[in-house]
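Final report, Chapter 2: Outcomes

The project's central promise was a pipeline that accepts a single protein chain and returns its three-dimensional structure in a standardized token representation, suitable for archiving and comparison. That pipeline is now operational. To close this chapter, we reproduce one record exactly as it appears in the project archive, with the input sequence first and the structure output second.
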Amino acid sequence: MRAEVEAGPQGSTDLASTVASVVADGWTPVHGHVGTLAEWDEYEWSWTGSLARWALDHPDHPDHRQALEASAAHRTARLGGYRGVLGFVVLVLRPTPRGVGG
């Protein structure tokens, strides 16, 4: 399967195009789950929050400031920019037999 999706909203595509792409690559979707905004928020808060908590709990570590700044920068970019633009889909795929359409 191709891995051509770029990071950021400029590289994203809609669900129909994503499914069409995997079908064109010889796969048949047998199940899918589109992540909700709440699930995406949970994921984002989890990793930025974990990074911030680690930085706050380890103020003497040499990477403390870098970790805290990375967490804050990502959180600001997400909340002020691409929140609601990017999504997440999980597809369960099976190979389509040759000569059979998806």
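Archive annotation: Residues 36-86 form one domain.
This record, like all others produced under the grant, will remain available to the consortium after the project formally closes.
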